[in-house]
Specification:
3 helices; elongated; Methane Monooxygenase Hydroxylase, Chain G, domain 1; mainly alpha
Length: 100
């Protein structure tokens, strides 16, 4: 336990920041999972509606990743890697649907 006022304040701030970081990281993971579900639905039956849903999910995920990087929750390289993986999966699925 903290021994003085400043240590107590720093402990409170650290806990507040930890909770904020946890919320951002959890939201990023959730949006990425929703994107991958939409991607699988699009791969199973490519249609205009599923493509618009997919692009909306991608936009949401990109936005949350960018906000997390801006707030310092994620490192910029980590955010770039996550966005790259999303785009890479989309590219592989669209390549498969075009050849099929």
């Amino acid at each position: 336990m903290a021994n003085n006022k400043s240590a107590l304040k720093r402990a409170k701030i650290a806990e507040r920041n930890r909770m904020r970081n946890k919320a951002y990281k959890s939201a990023v993971k959730t949006l990425m999972k929703k994107y991958f579900v939409a991607l699988n639905a699009y791969a199973a039956s490519p249609s205009e509606e599923s493509k618009t849903e997919l692009m909306a999910r991608m936009s949401e995920a990109y936005s949350k990743i960018d906000k997390s990087v801006k707030r310092g929750v994620l490192h910029s390289n980590n955010g770039a890697r996550k966005k790259s993986r999303l785009a890479q999966r989309l590219k592989s699925v669209t390549r498969q649907t075009l050849t099929a």
